[in-house]
Amino acid sequence: MTAATHALHLAQLNVAALTHPLDDPxxxxxxxxxxxxxxxxxxxxxxxxxxxxxxxxxxxxxxPMGENVIVxxxxxxxxxxxxxxxxxxxxLEVMRRRRExxxxxxxxxMVLWRVPAGHLPTVAEALERLSDLRTHxxxxxxxxxxxxxxxxxxGAAAARxxxxxxxxxxxxxxSSPAPPPADHTWTAPLTTPIPDVDPVxx
Length: 202
Fold this sequence. Notes:
About 14% of the residues have low confidence. The two termini are 17 Å apart. It is built from five helices and four strands. It is globular. By secondary structure, the protein is α+β, with helices and mostly antiparallel strands.
């Protein structure tokens, strides 16, 4: 784990439905890649934490969304750090093979959100963010790489949610901020277009 140098870190959850069980020979290539890809994540600049089952090296045995759905939950210092690992490392080659092991997604399967530095999100928290994205679309509290929001926007959204809670309202009863202007960008060095692949459990 690297030192916490930012007031807010970035949490991510992605889920994937297996086409065959992990102990099926057709899934064996994916299982063989788990340890090296996880080791690469652990050593990546900006990596903070990832969910693992107690006594295990990964979280593949945790099935909060159904027997055939595996989850990946992690925290990174910045959105740029997660982007670099996801799309500019050996992890990208694993993603390109995703159709060998996972079903096609019919709804949002990955969500990003900001967390205070030092906070480790629970699975329940992560699933709530994914549900928020699926129900309400991208917002500062639940977004994707292609609909990213800045740290300032996330902080403002958290403040509005806290205020709504104090007044007995659900966070989504508070007016959302106006969408960012067309030229709005986040701070990662997007010199390369987003590849036509989905992040998968690693």
